[in-house]
Amino acid sequence: MSTDQAPTARPSLRERRRAVAAQEIVSAAEAHIVENGPHALSLRAVARDLGMTVQALYHYFPSRDDLVTALITKAYDDLADAVQAATEATPDDLDLPGMVVAAEGYRRWAIDHPERFQLLYGAPLRHYHAPVDGPTTRANLRMSAVFERELYRGFTREQLAAIDVRSLSPEFLSRLETTPMSGEEALPPPATALMLSVWGYVHGMVVLEVFGHTGFLGAHQAELYRMAMRNLLDDTRRRVPAPPSG
After folding, report:
1. Which domains can be identified in the chain, with CATH numbers?
2. What's the rounded Cα separation, in Å, for the pair 244 and 246?
3. Do the beta carbons of residue 194 and residue 163 sit within 8 Å?
């Protein structure tokens, strides 16, 4: 290690204990959401489950919004981890494109954790306002980065800038100049517009399933989703022009 680099200070015993207690509170709140749904979240009930007073809980999370932000951030991080893990595992079909694999990882997490998925994408919690550009935004961008990578793998920036979006107004495309999807380098506006459209399909079908609107299909819901994601990817690729010859 360079002599110019100062060693990272180890958290104090008090800080470590505080971190453990905060994690126990988040875990208890998650369990409460799983049992009762996100809209029934009660700090008093969480404190009671932990054998502590509400006043003691406020020592770790000064407000309900602070605890909700921690819960949403963790849910987004867990969802992003699941999507990333799906792309790194060997798929059941070796010819399955990475974007479809990522979408199916997203679907599986949502089905396995419906209450936490509803916390992220269900009806907003009353009076809750996520911090602007805060931890929930950063966690969500992690997942967007995986889909962006898999959707546009193999295409050059020049190809993405030339995606055919003639139906969109210059004003809208200008707005997308400052709308990074993953927190990394902003995509060209046409690629951002197309990705937002793709995201609507990926997410919308999962919402229908998690909220019980496609239950009449039974086990065939997975088959329908895979077909839809394959078709979606094929349509997306047709909209990206071929690279210039030579």
Report:
1. 12-62 (1.10.10), 64-238 (1.10.357.10)
2. 6
3. yes
Q: What's phi and psi for 200, nearest 5 deg? A: -60, -40
Considering the entire predicted model, what is its pTM? 0.89
Q: How far apart are CA 148 and CA 198, in angstroms?
A: 10
Q: Indicate the length of the chain as a whole number.
A: 246
Structure tokens of 115?
């209450």
pLDDT tens for 137-157 read: 888 889 899 999 999 999 999
Residue 230 burial (CB count, 10 A): 15
For residues 209 and 225, the answer to whether their CB atoms sit within 8 Å is yes
**Do residues 80 and 146 make contact, with C-beta atoms less than 8 angstroms apart?**
yes
Distance CA 104, CA 82 (A): 10
List, in order, residues 6 or more apart from 33 with CB less than 8 Å away. 40, 41, 71, 115, 116, 119
- Residue 140 contacts residue 76 (beta carbons within 8 Å): yes
Distance CA 111, CA 132 (A): 28
User: What span, in angstroms and rounded, lies between the C-alpha atoms of 38 and 30?
Assistant: 9
Rg of the chain over Cα atoms, rounded to whole angstroms, equals: 21
CA distance 67 to 73: 10
Provide the token pair at 66: 């602070």
- The phi, psi pair for 12, rounded to 5°, reads -70, 165
pLDDT in tens, 158-179: 999 999 888 899 899 899 887 7
Three-state SS letters, 31-52: HHHHHHCHHHCCHHHHHHHHCC
> Given the structure tokens 């999962």, which residue do they identify?
206
